[in-house]
Write a structure and sequence with these properties.
71 residues; 1 helix; 5 strands; elongated
């Protein structure tokens, strides 16, 4: 190797992460920077979460979220 090291940095909002964890298994509406999304919240990670719509999982980056509401 040439001595260079790759570093990955991801922004993490602990308040959004904590709030989303309380909604797992419930229907939610998410406004992203592109489109609104409505579905069942299936899982949450620090940098993304999964919303299932018609049995299809959608992985949404937390950085793209404008607001979230229980449906």
């Amino acid at each position: 190797m040439n001595g260079q090291q790759t570093v990955f940095t991801s922004l993490y909002d602990p308040y959004v992460f904590q709030a989303l964890n309380t909604l797992i298994g419930k229907p939610i509406t998410v406004q992203t920077t592109k489109n609104p999304v409505q579905g069942m919240l299936k899982s949450v990670a620090p940098d993304h979460f999964v919303v299932e719509i018609n049995q299809t999982p959608f992985f949404i980056r937390t950085q793209e979220v404008v607001w979230i509401s229980p449906a």
